[in-house]
Amino acid sequence: MTTWHAEQSRPGGAPQAPVAAHRPGPAAPVPQPALDYYLVHPDGPGGSVAAPEGLVVEEFVLGEDWAAVRLDSAAWTPADGHWWDCAAFSRSIRVDAQLRRRVVGVPRHEAATAYRLLGGGELPGEKALRGHFHDGQPLSTAAPLRLNPHPAGAGMRDSRVYRVLFAADLRPDGLANLRGGWRMASTGDPADPEARVIGVASRRVGADSFTWHLRRIGAGGPWCLDLSADLAGGADRLGPLLRELTAALRMQGLIPVTIERFS
Asked: Is residue 194 part of a domain?
């Protein structure tokens, strides 16, 4: 993985120690992974079905308004034998289509299996993995545009619009998976080069209402997800929902680029 070795490797932290239970009782809920995991396959014919040659772990750091302010990342290969900061490689994934074809988003348990098979042993916990993030990539931010001049709806304290921008293309099977998982209504034919909004889905959480549109930016261009949020209370649910929706698209082959607040 020669592209990786252009960066400086750095020592990282130790794995997180397990916490012992004080008394018997119901099992505590298992924390959901917060980091994004990718396998990097060899270049050349057959590389996509060959054993991966390394792992990349990333995290979008979100600001107070839940827009992305930084992308942290670290990588591991058997040749290196340790984790190292890979900000330049993460940038390259998002601008180099040929390199991007080698990178596959996976859930944490699949990354853990690959790490073990490649000789790394037990995949470190997420707290330990964050210890390998050093020189994250800052993401440009700006004050949100007021695209909607109207105030929040009746009973709502705040209305916001977010856009999650992605690289890569969405395959037909990935689109079908999203339609089923989100119960997404089709609003455009992806085979039509003029179609932009391809689907819409919504969810109500307590008194808060969320609607998101899956949009294609230009004919054959990148994809994005536009999330509209009508909030009756605070904005605490926004961060987890943005991560959930971003992860769903990442599992269908898209690579998240940034999360912006529009209004």
From this structure: yes
Name the domain count of the chain: 2
Q: Is residue 26 part of a domain?
A: yes
Instruction: Judge whether residue 139 has pLDDT over 80.
Output: yes
130/176 same-domain check: no
**Residue 256 forms part of a structural domain:** yes
pTM score: 0.83
How far, in Å, CA of 26 to CA of 28, rounded? 6
Which range of residues forms the domain containing residue 75?
2-138
Q: What is the pLDDT of residues 82-111, one digit of tens each?
A: 999 999 999 999 999 999 999 999 999 999
C-alpha 194/C-alpha 231 separation (Å) is 33
One domain for residues 163 and 123: no
User: Which pLDDT tens digit goes with each residue over 49-89?
Assistant: 678 999 999 999 999 999 999 999 999 999 999 999 999 99
Task: State how far the Cα of 88 lies from the Cα of 7, in Å rounded to an integer.
Answer: 7
Instruction: State the amino acid at position 9 in one-letter form.
Output: S
> By three-state DSSP, how is residue 176 classified?
helix
Q: Name the burial class of residue 216, with classes exposed (0-12), middle (13-18) and buried (19+) by CB atoms within 10 angstroms of its CB.
A: buried
Pair 103, 204 in one domain = no
